[in-house]
Amino acid sequence: MTNPTHSRGSSKSEPHGRGAAYNPPNRFEPWQYEPDSDLDPAEQPLPRTRFVLDRSTRVLSFNDSPDLGFDVSLNPYRGCEHGCAYCYARPTHEYLGFSAGLDFESIIVVKPDAPELLRRELSLPSWQPRPIALSGVTDCYQPVERKWQLTRRCLAVLAEFRNPVCVVTKNHWVTRDLDLLAELAAHRAAVVCLSISTLDAQLARRLEPRASLPEFRLRAIEALARAGIPVGILMAPMIPGLTDSEMFQLTRAAAQAGARFASYSVLRLPHAVKDLFLDWLDRHAPLQKARILRRLQQLREGRLTDSRFGTRLTGTGPEAARLARMFEVACRRAGLTDPFPELSTAAFRVPEPRAGTGQLELSFPEDKPPNDSNLQGFPNLK
Q: Rounded to whole angstroms, how far apart are CA atoms 279 and 288?
C-alpha cells in the first residue's frame, strides 16, 4: 500500500552524505511507500534535498518544559540537512506527514516570513521581553541558511529590538553574524553554544555528515570569543561507550579556544530515532554496539530511552552520577567553571515605524532573499 501524497524509499543502502540510511514508517501515517524489490539498491535514486514553503502566521514557539533553560524558541527551518544520526528532533517531521529518516534531512521546511513574523510578535503589547532560543529544535545554521539567510535576518530584528537570544549550532557559519551577535552582546543580550559531541573528525563525518567538522566548531568558538560574545559548549549528545571517553580532551580544547561554560546531555532515542541509531551502529560501530546499548540501559533503568522530565537529559542511577561527576571534574580541570551567562532584557525597545510606511520595515542583507521559485517538488504548507 502506498501513501498517495509522499514518496519515500525504505532501502537501507547507505546514501552518501546522509546520517540515516532509510525512511522508517511514519507512526501517524497508515500507508508508506516500499522500494521496488526487483530494483538493485545501487540503482535507487539518491534523496536530493528539497524545500517546502511554510506560510505559518506565527514564528515563536512556547514550552513549559522544566528541563530547558528557555520557554520561547524560534526555528526558521524544520528538518535539518546536517543529518545527525542521533538527532532527537527527527520525530518532529512525522507531524508533517514525512519520515524521521531520510525525509528529515532531505525535505527541509523553510519559513520565509520568519523575520517579518518575529518583528510583528516582538511589537505586540502582550510581548514580555525574555530570551529566545535560536534554534530550539533544528540547526538555524544548516546549509540552507547560506541561500535563505533567515537566521541572519531574524538576528537583525532581535538586534533592532535588543531582545536577548541564545544561539545553539553545530556550524562554523555562525561566525558570519559576528556583527549582529556582538551588537546584542554589548547589551548582555547574546550567548552562543557550540554543540560538539566528539573531536574525532572521522567519527563526526559518520555521525553528523553535513555539520561542520569539530576543528571548525572550535575555530568558531575562537572567533566568537575574540568578538566579545559569550560562548560555551554543549557536549550533546554524550554517547556512553562511544564519545564519553573524550570528555577531558573536549573540555580542554573548548576552553583553550575561548569557551567560558559547558554542559552535556546524554543520548536520547525517542520513537523512530531508536531504530535509526541502531541501524547506524550496525553500519559504523558494530564492535561497540553491545557496550553502548548496555551503558544506555544502565542510565535508563534498563531501557534505551526515557522521556520523563528531570531524567531524560542525564539519566538516573549510579552510572548517571558517575558521568555527572566526571564531567564536573573535566570542566574544573579545563577551567570551564563559569555559569551559563545571565541574559538581560534591560535594553529592550520597540523601534519606531519608519516615516511614511505606517509599519515597521525589515532591512535585508546585501543578498536579496530568495523568492518562492527556489522551492521544489512540494505544495505549500498552510
A: 13
Q: Tell me the per-residue pLDDT of 167-204, one tens digit each, with 9 for 90 and over.
A: 999 999 999 999 999 999 999 999 999 999 999 999 99
Residue 146 lies in a domain: yes
Q: Which of 249-258, 299-308, 340-349 has the lowest mean pLDDT?
A: 299-308
Q: Which amino acid is at 93?
A: H
Give residue 379's pLDDT band: very low, low, confident or very high (50, 70, 90). very low
Is residue 154 domain-resident? yes
- Domain count within the chain: 1
- For residue 286, count CB atoms less than 10 angstroms from its CB and return exposed for 0-12, middle for 13-18, buried for 19 or more: exposed
Residue 11 CA to residue 13 CA, distance in Å, equals 6
Torsion of CA 329, 330, 334, 338, to 10 degrees: -70
Give domain status of residue 374, yes or no: no
Q: Is residue 363 part of a domain?
A: no
- The three grid cell numbers given for residue 105, joined into one nine-digit string: 534531512
Residue range 254-273: average pLDDT?
96
CATH number at residue 208: 3.20.20.70
pTM across the whole model: 0.84
Give the whole-angstrom CA distance, residue 76 versus residue 124.
20
DSSP symbol at 258: T
Q: Is 275 helix (H, G, I), strand (E, B) or coil?
A: helix
Domain interval for residue 220: 41-337
Cell of 288: 561497540
For the chain, the straight-line distance linking the first and the last C-alpha, in angstroms and rounded, comes to: 27
